[in-house]
């Protein structure tokens, strides 16, 4: 996706949001959020959504999501202390896979600071292979609630 399109993201472009309060230890030596923290945040917002809205219980669910792709476009730094809003949507929903987009916004500012992409493939816990029928119906319904129309991508 073009960088300009991602830079123009606003909170209302996303259907689920989660607050995160930065910690002193989130900063790197340049006094801004370390790159690895963004991936921690992506994982947190996605898994919070899965648990709260898709009935997924990571330790015991028969299907689990394996991350097969992730990346992040950084537009402006965030530094401690800050409150960030992690905004989540589904850009693509397949039979066994889902592509999430995560916008990272600093509280009190309209401009997106970073936009990440995270792809899960849902597989059987034991065999680590996608099911013939794909992901479960409850998962799919949960994703459909935050899926974007292709016209809005």
TrEMBL record:
* Coiled-coil ranges (or none): none
Q: Name one GO molecular function term.
A: fatty acyl-CoA hydrolase activity
Can the keyword Cell cycle be found in this entry's annotation?
A: no
Keyword hit for Transferase: no
Which Pfam family is an annotated match for this chain, by its short name?
4HBT
List, for all copies, the residue spans of the domain called Thioesterase. Answer: 31-111
Key words of the record:
Hydrolase, Isomerase
Supply the InterPro entries for this chain: 4-hydroxybenzoyl-CoA_TE (IPR050563), HotDog_dom_sf (IPR029069), Thioestr_dom (IPR006683)
* The family this protein is said to belong to: Belongs to the 4-hydroxybenzoyl-CoA thioesterase family.
Can you say what this protein is called?
Thioesterase/thiol ester dehydrase-isomerase
Origin species: Amniculicola lignicola CBS 123094
């Amino acid at each position: 996706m073009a960088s300009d399109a991602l830079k123009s993201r606003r909170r209302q472009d996303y259907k689920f949001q989660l607050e995160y309060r930065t910690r002193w230890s989130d900063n790197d030596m340049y006094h801004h959020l370390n790159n690895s923290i963004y991936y921690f945040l992506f994982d947190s917002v996605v898994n919070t959504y899965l648990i709260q809205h898709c009935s997924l219980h990571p330790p015991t669910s028969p299907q689990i999501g394996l991350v097969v792709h992730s990346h992040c476009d950084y537009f402006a730094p965030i530094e401690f202390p800050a409150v960030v809003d992690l905004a989540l949507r589904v850009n693509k929903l397949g039979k066994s896979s889902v592509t999430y987009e995560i916008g990272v916004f600093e509280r009190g500012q309209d401009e997106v600071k970073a936009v990440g992409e995270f792809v899960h493939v849902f597989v059987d816990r034991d065999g680590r292979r996608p099911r013939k029928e794909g992901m479960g119906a409850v998962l799919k319904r949960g994703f459909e609630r935050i899926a974007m129309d292709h016209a809005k991508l």
